[in-house]
Amino acid sequence: MGNNFLNLALLIIFHFSMPTFSMKLTTIHTDQSVLLALKDHVIHDPENVLTTNWSASSPVCNWFGVSCGSKHRRVTALDLTGLGLVGTLPPHLGNLSFLSLLYVTNNSFYGGLPVQLSNLRRLKYLSFGNNSFNGEIPSRLGSLTELRRLFLYQNNFKGVIPFSLAYLSKLEVLYLFENQISGSIPSTIFNISSLQEIDLSYNMLSGSIPSVPRDLLLLEVIDFTSNNLTGHIPKDTFDHLPNLKELFLSFNLLSGRIPASLFKCKELQVLSLSFNQMEGSLPIEIGNLSMLQYIYIGRNHFEGEIPKQIVNLTLLMVVDCSQNNFTGECISKN
Ligand SMILES: *[C@@H]1O[C@H](CO)[C@@H](O)[C@H](O)[C@H]1NC(C)=O
Ligand SMILES: *[C@@H]1O[C@H](CO)[C@@H](O)[C@H](O)[C@H]1NC(C)=O
Ligand SMILES: *[C@@H]1O[C@H](CO)[C@@H](O)[C@H](O)[C@H]1NC(C)=O
Ligand SMILES: *[C@@H]1O[C@H](CO)[C@@H](O)[C@H](O)[C@H]1NC(C)=O
Ligand SMILES: *[C@@H]1O[C@H](CO)[C@@H](O)[C@H](O)[C@H]1NC(C)=O
Ligand SMILES: *[C@@H]1O[C@H](CO)[C@@H](O)[C@H](O)[C@H]1NC(C)=O
Ligand SMILES: *[C@@H]1O[C@H](CO)[C@@H](O)[C@H](O)[C@H]1NC(C)=O
Ligand SMILES: *[C@@H]1O[C@H](CO)[C@@H](O)[C@H](O)[C@H]1NC(C)=O
Ligand SMILES: *[C@@H]1O[C@H](CO)[C@@H](O)[C@H](O)[C@H]1NC(C)=O
Predict the structure, then answer these.
(1) What is the pLDDT of residues 228-239, one digit of tens each?
(2) Any residues with Cβ below 6 Å from ligand 2, and which?
(3) How far apart are CA 138 and CA 112, in angstroms?
(4) Looking at the DSSP assignment, which residues form a beta bridge with residue 247?
(5) Ligand 5 within 6 A of 164 CB?
(6) Residue 290, domain CATH
């Protein structure tokens, strides 16, 4: 009785732990079957790269676009940039458990992003830029905590920017430009201290620009051009961006003044605020931003004098302050 019970128990344990065990024990053969599944999901391969090169008769690590780790010989990078591929991404991709780079930029993949991508916990570099992907950005991408670069630009993504992306605490570059993303910018997006560039331009984002709660010493580019952002630029924004080089906020519905703290951005090269509803004057401290090359502030309700100090900005190449209420000449440098 006791023995039978033990045997039964062992049998049950064996039976139920087996699948789990074999799933964890993935090998290069897992990687191969994943890539063959991807190949199956590609319906057009104009340069015959996958068709001829991704052959089961040669080792996976020698396949075009595939890189393997030197020690464990598992697929660590998959770069299929610019091959003109048409197809969808299979859920199997989530099984490439050693993958740290996945680039499929400049192809014609369509359909949604498989949620299984969120299983790729080692992923650092992810680009789906310039394809025809649609659907929503899976909020589970927020669990890819090793991500440095997330490129979803030039696709047909709809819906909102998942709040979870603000938890990607190692993120350096976020490019979501040229999609149809709506809703507001996650309010804590500027809590990511590793951020270097954020480009959300040419979407349908609304709401206000989130405040910057901490020093972002690496942030150089903010591009929110052509959305439906409203409200003021938060006063504290420029207190925390000592290395900001390019600020693009044109073609929105922003109101209010340029915060005087802008002069703290000593590295600023581009200030682009045209086509908004901003008012007030241009702070004279703008004359202290000696790196400025481009000032675009046309089509707003700015008034007062253009500070004379800008004549001393030796690198300045373009000032567009047309269609405002500035008194006197709008000094144009071209
Ligand atoms: C596949 O492409 C790789 C990289 O270009 C090349 O080294 C390899 O010889 C090719 N293999 C076959 C079977 O064509
Ligand atoms: C990989 O993942 C898919 C679904 O996510 C699953 O059906 C499949 O069995 C897994 N294993 C391999 C080797 O691809
Ligand atoms: C994508 O294609 C464009 C146009 O040919 C090119 O400028 C760009 O560098 C390509 N992107 C990548 C990541 O290769
Ligand atoms: C997008 O990729 C295609 C190749 O698939 C390329 O011809 C085109 O120039 C790219 N577009 C941009 C804007 O880079
Ligand atoms: C901001 O980031 C820190 C870690 O750098 C984290 O502890 C904190 O919870 C974050 N705050 C918000 C509001 O996300
Ligand atoms: C801004 O909102 C208006 C009205 O809702 C809409 O017609 C327009 O297309 C939107 N523009 C952008 C860039 O989202
Ligand atoms: C701007 O520069 C002038 C000297 O060119 C200096 O006297 C002034 O303190 C500076 N202002 C700020 C806010 O840095
Ligand atoms: C300029 O000021 C006048 C008078 O205050 C106002 O009617 C007009 O709308 C303003 N124009 C712009 C572009 O702000
Ligand atoms: C420009 O710089 C020169 C030399 O530093 C200074 O004498 C002059 O007052 C400055 N002009 C303006 C308008 O700030």
Answers:
(1) 999 999 998 999
(2) 30, 33-34, 91-92, 94-95, 116
(3) 9
(4) 222, 271
(5) no
(6) 3.80.10.10
